Amino acid sequence: MAALDYLVTVDSYPKPDDKIRSTSFQVHGGGNIGNAMTCAARLGLTPRSISKVADDSQGKRILNELEADGIDTSFIVKTRTSIYTPEYPPMVADDLPDSSLSSALDDMERGSSIAGGLISMLLKLPSTKFVIATLGEDGCVMIERAETGDIQPEEVDIDDLFEKKQSIDTTSTLPTCKTSDGNYRTLFKMLQSCTRKGLGLCVGTAEKIPSSEIVDTTGAGDAFVGAVLYSLCANFPPEKMLIYASQVAAIGCRALGARDGLPHLTDPRLLPFLA
């Protein structure tokens, strides 16, 4: 989705049904795909957005903002209305069983643990190389498929391992990441039949931002996605990718709206993470 966000500043958080006066009002570009592509473009990629906008002044404003950041909008359809038509265009690959993705997402929501839900998604989406769940101020967790060669993976409980990986350095204010051992010997109980494949677990922290510096967390997840796209194109290893994406998202939280604070590749705050 590419959209516009209407941002209203008020003196205090309103109670339900309260009428409260605003102190300022702004309109910014928004929408998850628009935000993520803007982030990717500012980091140096040349993304193309496939979406739909209304053929009116607001739609033109959306396109102008995206194009100003170097995003290819030639595949964005301009229509009389921007109402979404269910099932069109199809958003799931033709070769994916109809129930696989929705079932995996349901498992993610009902799962006894985040890590267990991620493994369920890997099981039901066999072509997926990795899955990531963002945890807000608690950081993120990633599970990646990995070849183990002739090494017999070790059986461990996924929840036990996840808890151990959560106990990483919490004194650092900058993002950090901890991974399972480099040989990916871990074989979770849910994958006992896969004798030659293991899973790598990465747990990352978020930057500890002083409350005085947090302006708006809108679009932080979208910024994380855009930075992951850049990291994949730059061939970052998983642990570097998670740290970099977390830092990009944190920088974006220091400005109003989803895009104003998104950094460019040359931002000095990012240079230490590119070394």
Topology:
Layout: E1 3-10, E2 22-30, H1 32-42, E3 52-54, H2 57-68, E4 77-79, H3 98-110, H4 114-124, E5 130-134, E6 140-147, E7 154-156, H5 158-166, E8 177-179, E9 186-188, E10 197-204, H6 220-233, H7 238-252, H8 271-274
Parallel strand pairs: 3-4, 7-9
Antiparallel strand pairs: 1-2, 5-6, 6-10, 8-10
Helix pairs in contact: 1-6, 3-4, 6-7
Detailed description of the structure:
- Keywords: Kinase, Transferase.
- It comes from Solanum tuberosum.
- It holds the Pfam family PfkB.
- This protein has 275 residues and is α/β, with parallel strands linked by helices.
- It has a single domain, classed as UDP-N-acetylmuramoyl-L-alanine:D-glutamate ligase (3-Layer(aba) Sandwich), CATH 3.40.1190.
- The protein is 32% helix and 19% strand.
- It is built from eight helices and ten strands.
- A four-stranded antiparallel sheet has the order 5-6-10-8. Strands 1-2 form a two-stranded antiparallel ribbon.
- Strand 5 and strand 6 form a beta hairpin.
- The longest helix has 15 residues.
- About 8% of the residues have low confidence.
